[in-house]
Amino acid sequence: MRPLTRTAKSLLSLLLLTALGAGSMAWAAPSDDRLLPTDQHSSDKARRLAKTHASALRDLSAGVYHCLPWLEMHKHSIGFFRPKDAGQDERYLSIRVYIEQDASQQFAKLGADERAAAMFSRYVGPLLKRMGAERAVLDDPDLDGFTVILDWTKPTPRAAGERPITETIAVFIKKPMAAEYLAGRAPVGRLAEARILAWDGETARGQMRVTAWEDDFVATYKVANYQLEKGVSCQ
Question: Which of 92, 115, 138, 189 could form a disulfide with 145 if both were Cys (CB 3.0 to 4.6 A apart)?
Answer without folding.
Answer: 92
